[in-house]
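hiii, so i know i said id send this last week but things got crazy w the move. better late than never?? heres the sequnce for the chain we talked about at the cafe, plus the structure i predicted for it. fair warning i was half asleep when i ran it
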Amino acid sequence: MEELGRRAARGAGVTVAGQVARVVVQMLSVVVLARLLTPSDYGVIAMVLVVVGVGEVVRDLGLSTAAVRTRTLTEAQRSILFWANALIGATLMTALVVGAPLVGAIFGRDDVVPVARLVAVVFLLNGLAAQLRADLQRRLRFGSLAAVDVGSQVTGAVVAIVLAVGGAGVGALAAQQVTQSFVVLVACAALCRWVPSRPRRGVPMGELWRFGGSLAASQIAVYIGNNVDALVIGTRLGPTALGLYDRAYRLVMTPVSQVRSPTTTIALPVLSRLVEEPERLRRYLVRAQLALAYPVMIGAAMLVGTAGSATEVLLGDGWDGAAPLVRFMATSALLQTLAYVCYWVYLVFGLSSLLLRYTLVTVALKVVLVVVGSTWGVVGVAAAYTLAHTLEWPLSLVWLSRHAPIPGRRLAVGALHILGVGAVVALGAHVGTLLVDGPAWLALLVGLAAGTVLLVAALVLAPIRRDAADVVDVVRAALVRRR
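okay and structure toks below
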């Protein structure tokens, strides 16, 4: 178990370093491409990706997670999972190529059709790569996964920028998606050096299919809930409004997702080994929430406070109106992150059917709120999206506490500490920007400085100092290599 802890810590360090690199690459590409492309271009690609995202969940069918969490996976089972993902990917690619005119008709945009057909190949590429990535994750090869992810992001960004400079428009964004998936496939295949065998009958697959199917159903529901805002804006308010909303969303959620997503890569195989040690698992969850949510809180609070200056500096001209959207998105990002450890518990304990029921309830709530919010335009949608996550976070704790040994009270107290510090930092950053009557970059710097001062001042409080000590311990463990 001690060796597992050391490997997890080293894996966390490598993964964090890789994610920092990915965030830098993605933010640079956002800054550059926002000056080369229009909100309408981003609106068109966002329309396509709404459809592609649903297909991606279906394409994986929860089989990657099923492969990672199972304690034993035979060669025959692995091969069947590979061919299943590949077949689903090929089927979805064909369906999108043929059905692209229908996607265009739904959004009322003919220019969506060629973009959808180009991006369709992503289904096949990702289907072929799914079990290769799962194998690297099972073997705790986090350094390899980080290198693959960073390399694909860099390559995709370079291709998109070159094409955008050449006047490719939205085609540059479509090429970026395809390039990233292609690089991931080639790199994972080179690292795994595995050739799947022909599928055979009589291989025990029932548990893998059941877990994957339930998880996929809940993931589809989550995706619909997370993207109903884009669907409503695209169909009711048009591509320019959707492009504006999408850039605000990506500006906030891209770095946050790069922090959150890889933590599951580390947490799932590690926590799966602790299901028979409930008290130790509880301690891991409490510290994991602090270590994950405090960094997200700092970034989110700074964005809430400096949204006006930050959007002007990062996105440039032509993106007026993004600031209020960024404030709502940053708040949503923090609330989502607070509930993220609950997602790990569902997976670790195999509670995929329970997760599905919970997800259906929260998605229904979000759909109703977003549809109602759209009456007040794109800002109304953003506000509704944030309200939905505000309600979902406490619901997730109550729901899961009845079915799994989670430290609900300790998680809630830790979350309240995080939210309280975040509110103070956001207020300080906002006041700092108001003190500057000058260029946006100067107001941004002053706001960030003011927020930082209040963040440090919060350490006067003993509970916040204890939280900070726990976060430092987790970070130190991640950075210390085995001697």
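btw The chain is about 85% helix and 0% strand. thought thatd interest u
miss u guys!!
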